[in-house]
Amino acid sequence: DNEIEGGDYGFLAPSLNVKLDLAEDKVVRAGVFRSLVRPGFQESNAGAVVDTEDNEIEGGNPNLEPTTAWNFDLTFEYYLSDLTFFGAGLFFKSIDDAIVEVEATDSVFRGQLYDVAGTFINTDNAEIKGMELTYQTAWTNGFLFVANYTLSDGETDLPADSVYGARSVPFFKQAKHTGNLSVGYNRESWDIRLAANYRSSYLDEIGDEPLADRYTDDFVQVDLTARYTVNDNLIVTAEAMNLNDQPEYYYFGNTSRLSQYDEYGTTYGFGLRWTF
User: Fold this and answer.
1) d(Cα 276, Cα 273) in Å, to the nearest integer?
2) Residue 99's CB: how many other CB atoms inside 10 A?
3) What is the reported pLDDT for 17?
4) Helix (H, G, I), strand (E, B) or coil at 54
5) pLDDT at 225
6) pTM of structure
7) 175: which residues sit within 8 A by CB, 6+ positions away?
8) What is the Cα–Cα distance from 78 to 25, expressed in whole angstroms?
9) For 142-159, what is each residue's pLDDT tens digit?
10) Is 70:97 a contact under the CB 8 Å cutoff?
């Protein structure tokens, strides 16, 4: 019936962190904590945008519950030298009331039938588990190298009474693979970084059926940034973002069903910072 209901809640957020020094250069850390994230303004906004010509509506959901989670982390840190570090970690999250964006056709929304209606809903239980790897090193001549990778695997169960069907979907807006490679030079007045950032495809919007679910495709972006310290007061900065001119590609269900294609080109920037 889309009526707005009032409500309040309390939240207990315990946290426990343990550190174990295996040796001078090796450390293990473990942690468990409970967290809460309230719905954002766009998600919980009572207002809506109505397209009367196409009979479509898009609005928030003021009845959303906050998202809560139990979080578990285990990390290993190895300091190979003063300039070299390796880290590995495992994590697990048990999530309640995750928020996802959904879209349905021929749906009653706020008392009226629309051809297309979009809003946000809470899901049933969800889980995310994964691992992280990090390596960074530097040399006395100023050159440096950084690499990191995260594997994050998660699913969300849609509610049984959802108009989108009781089914499991990938965790909303969560890429399974993300990574970064960066090389640079940092010595005296110069700080220069060339970085490549990667993320795999992720679920962007839930539709009436799996083939109507919208995904954002894999994305790789290469950026170059530079900073030169002229003196104690003046710093000059420059950047070239998306050097590889990577487009954004969205699709329904599989990559052959185009939803949206955007090209942004390379963006250049230049700046001066003066400190008094």
Assistant:
1) 10
2) 21
3) 96
4) coil
5) 97
6) 0.80
7) 152, 199, 200, 201, 202
8) 6
9) 999 999 999 999 988 877
10) no
